[in-house]
Amino acid sequence: MIYYNRESLFKVLPKGCSSIERFLKETKIFPKNEIISLESDHSIVARIMTISLGEGYELEFETHRKYIDLHLVLSGSEFFQVTDSNNLEVFNQYSLENDVIKYRAKNDDLKKIEETIFSEIILNQNNFVFFFPRDAHRGGVFYKKFHKNESLNANNYFVHKIVFKIENRYFK
What we know:
Jelly Rolls, single chain, six-stranded antiparallel β-sheet, 3 helices, mainly beta
């Protein structure tokens, strides 16, 4: 996992990912929901989305085999929980079409074990994170401690972001 701010993104992108840099520099307004292939062979795809945040214990973890995830928050804040996939049990087997394996905690008392085996990351506007194949992650988590206004809840809080799907071969 690599986590930092947008100004540093171009320094850590692997060679061959210039289409991401070009896309971010040339695009002035990002749509709310769109999927754009940045390479003709679909080896780099940008998924622009606005999502409603949910309670962490309701969400599943996921990993990917073919693609590395690069999450870049455009507006709002998003809380992630991350762990090694070996700490979880497979909930849905690998889907080749979506390049995803879904996981859930091995223990039924999810709220209790979250405090011990998961790392937590908060992405604010212009922060990014890379998730590699063993980085089981769940985003879209609403984090009450982070928000000063206790009247906020997950049903009325959104984040606008881009998830770049980058084939593993760029990182070898």
